[in-house]
Write a structure and sequence with these properties.
Distance between the termini: 41 Å
Radius of gyration: 27 Å
Structural class: alpha+beta
Largest sheet: 6 strands, mixed
Helix content: 25-40%
Order of helices and strands: EEHHEEEEEEEHEEHEEHHEEEEEEH
Number of helices: 7
Length: 373
């Protein structure tokens, strides 16, 4: 659901459904009409009429539910109540109760799998501490963008005056609603301990760490090639072009279409044949030649990529830096293991995912001591 009430902190309104889902649902329902018409004898179709009628009605019902299904959540802070509903254009099912049933706003990270893809979402929920008496949780929003979900979670926590429980960093982090804008430096000055004592560097460090006065520069070498990267590059450079060539391009050429306007289509196919090789070469170059440069001082922390594909430096001031931790394992191409994560309300920086845990912990302690000085 999306918040449609803007920054109104007295009556917070969310609505879901409509938009692209309406078009998708109508198309889904359209495919259900054909077997229904066949079952009624209006169009010629082979097969069981009863079976076609049942399948068609299922498609029509599902398509209409997707196209016209709507959901909503209204939080009335003046009365201290919530109302959640679902229906087809108009509400069918409705639940309501006092906001006092709930004790926190929870932001989580969940891996979703469908038949053809795997993706990550960041649900925001109004929930309760285990053991409390609330009947259920309120699912508020579900974005694939972690920064968007955190912004929404903080908005709710501040306005509902509830703690924010963040489960996206690999460990549970709970912040009081009136401490959400405090920086890491502020919390350390109030007495929060810095994890770990800074001992000697661990043996076998791959990164180079140069500490000069109150600043540090860390050079993290390219991660190098590993088996998953090699297998992914080889598979993409063989399987995808083979599909394009044998299923699409060869019948096209055999049909005598490679002349005149057909040359444009051949060039179109050629792009899809060459694209995996281009992306594969990029993945190999990044793995072998791209270094990560991390700089930190009491003013903040910055990260940039150095090599054939340099990137612009991204930075977070110390006054905005809220979390600096070793994050959870990331399931993404070119990412290995758990990165070090620096996060503010507007930006998240990740680096060092190919390093050993002992080296990560030592670098994390160095960075935390520097930026909170």
């Amino acid at each position: 659901m999306q918040r449609i009430s803007g920054d109104d902190s007295n009556r917070i309104v969310y609505k879901g459904g409509g938009g692209c889902l309406t078009l998708f649902g109508l198309v889904f329902a359209f495919f259900g009409f054909m077997p229904v018409l066949g079952a009624l004898g209006l169009v010629r179709m082979e097969g069981s009429a009863i079976g076609g009628l049942i399948v068609g009605l299922i498609f029509i019902a599902a398509g209409c539910a997707i196209a016209f299904g709507r959901s909503g959540l209204i939080i009335d802070l003046g009365n201290g109540t919530y109302s959640k509903w679902w229906g087809i254009i108009v509400p069918f099912q409705k639940t309501s109760g006092p906001i006092s049933d709930f004790t926190l706003v929870r932001m989580n990270k969940e891996i979703r799998k469908s038949k053809n893809s795997t993706y990550t979402v960041y649900p925001v929920r109004i929930a309760t501490i285990p053991g409390k008496s609330a009947k259920n949780r309120l699912d508020v929003s579900e974005s694939r963008n972690a920064q968007e979900s955190r912004t929404e979670a903080e908005f709710l926590a501040k306005n509902l005056k509830l703690d924010l429980e963040d489960l996206t960093l690999g460990e549970k982090v709970v912040r009081a609603h009136d401490e959400l804008d405090e920086s890491l430096r502020d919390r350390v000055r109030k007495g929060e301990a810095i994890t770990g004592q800074l001992g000697p560097p661990p043996s076998g460090m791959r990164s180079q760490c140069r500490i000069e006065g109150r600043s540090v520069e860390i050079e993290i070498p390219p991660p190098g090639l590993d088996v998953p990267t090699i297998v992914g590059v080889v598979a993409s450079c063989v399987i995808f072009p083979a599909i394009v060539i044998f299923i699409f391009l060869r019948p096209f050429l055999q049909g005598g279409m490679a002349k005149g306007p057909g040359i444009v289509f051949v060039a179109f196919f050629a792009f899809f044949i060459l694209a995996p090789f281009i992306f594969g070469a990029g993945a190999i170059i990044r793995a072998l030649f791209v270094k990560t440069i991390v700089r930190a001082s009491p003013d903040g922390i910055s990260v940039r990529k150095s090599g054939p594909f340099p990137s612009a430096e991204k930075s977070i001031p110390s006054t905005e830096l809220e979390e600096l931790v070793i994050g959870p394992k990331v399931n993404a191409p070119g990412v290995r293991g758990s990165p070090i994560v620096a996060r503010s309300d507007r930006l998240t920086l990740s680096f060092g995912d190919g390093l050993g845990r002992a080296e990560q912990q030592w670098l994390l302690t160095v960075l935390r001591k520097i930026v909170t000085a």
